[in-house]
């Protein structure tokens, strides 16, 4: 970069042109905005450089927008300046509008006129895109006359994932620039494109491996004085082709199919449609109208809540006072996986892809060979998909558990069998070098019972992966009463390294996810007893937005899994008749799942479960007349009279029972906050993201309403403990249902042990 010409150095060679009078004027204009967050400097004499400065992602806050408007005016008014570059501080162009401002009163200049100011400028404006240009960030770049990107930059319009549409001209400019099909795909999925793809699509003009800012300055000099007539995207003709109607119809079908009730993707298609049917100015009006509808919707609120929730879970804390910011993870270079069944294989792949050396142990030679082949295939497919190098050489396979002696962390992933796991933990405790963290992949067993098998219980934590383990983003990291903060921090960090969202949870039966699933499943079974069919219950849940209804999920994961657990708990009493058949420990119990298992109906794997499949392993669920007959016969045998159950009741009983357990989990301190539960349910259990998660949904419905319905159902079914409202929901409802971010104040804090 050339020498700067003004005084007032703010950062290194960047010179800020901002005199006292201007500062005062700005402060008067913006009243309480603390600082101009776009800095102006002049480079090589003739290029005005505007640098957005709002860490960490240079989001377009009111102050940044004000700064851009002011510095643009400055650049345009200086006769020496012939062209302008807009860039972002710290190698990040811009992460879009400031999402935190969406729920506050609108201040500062709006985005749309700000971008028009840039586009209408008579001097060329070049966007220097490093890091990210997302949402409003990309829309800002589309308002510039040229775009230069760094090869590692990512560009996209992810507004749809926040329940919005690109409302700063994105739906009108992008199709004009790259055509309707490509724009529709980017806008409705919200995915990020690489710089190379953006170049190919025509979103950017040049890609560089060096500094995009330097390249943009050079470029800006080369285009100074040239006509900008062909560079203003808003003036481009509307893209037209004979098959446009078909393209839109297909896009609409696709988003309706995949959106599961989310309104933003559908609205995005409508907005892009306006770009071809209306002139630009009218298209912008339509974009604004549609944007306003989305902006105030509950779905946008839910998705934006979820955006922050997913980030908040990394700031974990435990009731004993351990915290993310005071507990340091220990580095892990070498890890081991014990047991190479389905879960163990997925975990091995995740570890190897995270760059760790892995010792993969399976004691049966034949299974070891099979696992080795399967893992190689998974790694190859995954490397191809991600365009990443193969990680085969990271893994050493062994038949002997002794091979784990020198690893830093072990993940045991054998069957869900406490006796077997205990034996392995006893062995590990003797074999591993001192300080090795011992983790168990379990979906609900007692971490502390396992810890007690070892010489160092403080090194033991649970890592509950979700199948398929190399694909699913969720990891429940379970701390026992004796797990050290360091062990917890290390497991959380390991999850992050593997690309997972790790959520710290306390040790109890089923942890958070599966514990909440129990009353939900229970209600689904009871509904069948009372007259519903699996299809009806699933339809209600799928219409709500679940990826799959509860019975389809049960068929997919295998009915035998829960059966084994119930047997171990002494709940399965084969051949029992009369009233006692449906009561356990004084509470209502449905043996329906047990009865199906006794018939060998384990779900998809046996071709029969709650549904029928064309063959064992078949995927397409079809209603099964046998099952309907079986349910009728079951009801008759137990003196149950089938009734028509409406959608509302099915939904309320399943969801409110689950939510009630969520409140109990908060009250027990098993989850630190409602965000933890919501992230677990969205990422691990198919809860629709546009409904924020079960706890957020409860707040949206109204806690007093949820409480009232729980009270009602508990009155009707007094022997179902899952319907008895938990005291925390009562307390919150009695305190005028505070917003979700204040719920933690109402949870009784266990005394800190620190
Ligand atoms: C008319 C209007 C039309 C336009 C609408 C829009 O532009 S809508 C917007 C469209 N844009 C998007 O949807 C992009 C949203 N952002 C992202 O996808 C990612 O943050 C990233 C890829 C930019 C960086 O990933 P990374 O893994 O490197 O980092 P990270 O993810 O951990 O974030 C770090 C911190 O920054 C925070 N924060 C981030 N962005 C924003 C924001 N826009 N705002 C506010 N805050 C934001 C984030 O909460 C976190 O804070 P914490 O927890 O530390 O207090």
UniProtKB/TrEMBL annotation:
Domain 3-hydroxyacyl-CoA dehydrogenase NAD binding per the UniProt entry, residue ranges: 334-507
SUPFAM superfamilies in alphabetical order: 6-phosphogluconate dehydrogenase C-terminal domain-like, ClpP/crotonase, NAD(P)-binding Rossmann-fold domains
Signal peptide: none
Pathway terms, separated by semicolons: Lipid metabolism; fatty acid beta-oxidation
PROSITE patterns: 3HCDH, ENOYL_COA_HYDRATASE
Chief location bin: other
Subcellular localization: Peroxisome
Catalytic reaction list: (2E)-hexadecenedioyl-CoA + H2O = (3S)-hydroxyhexadecanedioyl-CoA; a (3S)-3-hydroxyacyl-CoA + NAD(+) = a 3-oxoacyl-CoA + NADH + H(+); a (3E)-enoyl-CoA = a 4-saturated (2E)-enoyl-CoA; (3E,5Z)-octadienoyl-CoA = (2E,5Z)-octadienoyl-CoA
Classification via Pfam families: 3HCDH, 3HCDH_N, ECH_1
SUBUNIT field: Monomer.
Family according to the record: In the N-terminal section; belongs to the enoyl-CoA hydratase/isomerase family. In the C-terminal section; belongs to the 3-hydroxyacyl-CoA dehydrogenase family.
UniProt name for this protein: Peroxisomal bifunctional enzyme
Organism listed in the record: Crenichthys baileyi
């Amino acid at each position: 970069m050339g020498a700067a010409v003004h005084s007032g150095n703010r950062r290194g060679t960047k010179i800020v042109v901002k005199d006292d009078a201007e500062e005062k004027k700005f402060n008067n204009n913006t009243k309480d905005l603390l600082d101009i967050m776009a800095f102006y400097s002049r480079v090589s004499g003739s290029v005005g450089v505007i640098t957005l400065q709002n860490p960490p992602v240079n989001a377009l806050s009111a102050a940044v927008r004000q700064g851009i408007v002011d510095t643009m005016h400055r650049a345009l008014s200086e006769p020496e300046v012939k062209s302008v570059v807009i860039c972002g501080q710290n190698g990040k162009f811009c992460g879009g509008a400031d999402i935190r401002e969406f729920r506050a009163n609108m201040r500062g200049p709006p985005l749309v006129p700000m971008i028009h100011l840039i586009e209408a400028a008579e001097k060329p404006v070049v966007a220097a895109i490093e890091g990210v240009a997302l949402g409003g960030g990309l829309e800002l770049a589309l308002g510039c006359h040229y775009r230069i990107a760094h090869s590692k930059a990512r560009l996209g319009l992810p507004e749809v994932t926040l329940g919005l549409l690109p409302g700063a001209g994105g739906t009108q400019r992008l199709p004009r620039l790259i055509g309707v099909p490509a724009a529709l795909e980017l806008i409705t999925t919200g995915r990020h494109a690489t710089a190379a793809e953006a170049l190919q699509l025509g979103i950017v003009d040049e890609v560089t491996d060096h500094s995009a800012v330097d390249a943009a300055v050079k470029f800006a000099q080369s285009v100074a004085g040239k006509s900008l007539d062909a560079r203003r995207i808003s003036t481009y003709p509307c893209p037209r082709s004979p098959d446009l109607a078909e393209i839109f119809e297909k896009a609409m079908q696709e988003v309706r199919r995949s959106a599961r009730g989310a309104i933003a993707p559908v609205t995005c298609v409508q907005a892009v449609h306006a770009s071809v049917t209306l002139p630009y100015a009218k298209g912008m009006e339509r974009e604004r109208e549609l944007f306003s509808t989305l902006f105030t919707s509950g779905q946008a609120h839910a998705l934006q809540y979820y955006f922050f929730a997913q980030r908040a879970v990394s700031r974990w804390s435990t009731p004993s006072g351990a915290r993310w910011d005071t507990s340091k993870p220990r580095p892990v270079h070498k890890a081991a996986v014990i047991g190479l069944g389905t879960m163990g294989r997925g975990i091995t792949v995740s570890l190897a892809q995270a760059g760790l050396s892995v010792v993969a142990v399976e004691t049966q030679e034949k299974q070891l060979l099979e696992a080795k082949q399967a893992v190689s295939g998974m790694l190859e497919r995954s490397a191809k998909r991600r365009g990443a190098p193969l990680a085969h050489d990271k893994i050493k396979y062994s038949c002997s558990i002794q091979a784990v002696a020198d690893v830093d962390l072990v993940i045991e992933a054998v069957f869900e069998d406490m006796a077997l796991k205990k034996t392995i933990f006893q062995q590990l405790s003797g074999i591993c070098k001192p300080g090795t963290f011992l983790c168990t992949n379990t979906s609900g067993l007692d971490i502390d019972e396992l810890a007690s098998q070892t010489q160092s219980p403080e090194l033991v934590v649970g890592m509950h992966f979700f199948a398929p383990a190399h694909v699913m983003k969720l990891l429940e990291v379970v701390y026992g009463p004796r797990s050290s903060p360091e062990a917890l921090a290390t497991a959380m960090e390991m999850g992050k390294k593997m690309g997972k969202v790790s959520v710290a949870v306390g040790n109890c039966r089923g942890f958070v996810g599966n514990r909440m699933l129990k009353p939900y499943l229970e209600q689904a079974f009871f509904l069948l007893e009372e007259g519903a069919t699996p299809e009806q219950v699933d339809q209600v849940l799928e219409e709500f937005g679940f990826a799959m209804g509860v019975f389809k999920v049960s068929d997919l994961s295998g009915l035998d899994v829960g059966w084994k657990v119930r047997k171990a708990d002494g709940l399965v009493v084969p051949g029992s008749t009369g009233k006692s058949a449906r009561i356990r420990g004084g509470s209502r119990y449905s043996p329906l799942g047990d009865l199906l298992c006794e018939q060998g109906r384990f779900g998809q794997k046996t071709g029969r479960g709650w549904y029928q499949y064309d063959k064992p392993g078949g995927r397409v669920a079809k209603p099964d007349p046998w099952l309907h007959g079986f349910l009728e016969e079951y009801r008759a045998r137990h003196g149950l009279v089938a009734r028509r159950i409406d959608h509302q009741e099915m939904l309320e009983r399943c969801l409110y029972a689950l939510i009630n357990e969520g409140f109990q989990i908060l009250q027990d301190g098993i989850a630190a906050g409602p965000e933890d539960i919501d992230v677990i349910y969205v990422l691990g259990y198919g809860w629709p993201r546009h409904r924020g998660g079960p706890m957020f949904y409860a707040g949206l419905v109204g806690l007093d309403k949820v409480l009232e319905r729980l009270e009602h159902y508990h009155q009707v079914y007094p022997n179902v403990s899952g319907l008895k409202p938990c005291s925390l929901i009562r307390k919150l409802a009695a305190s005028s249902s505070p917003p979700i971010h204040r719920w933690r104040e109402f949870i009784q804090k266990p005394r800190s042990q620190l």
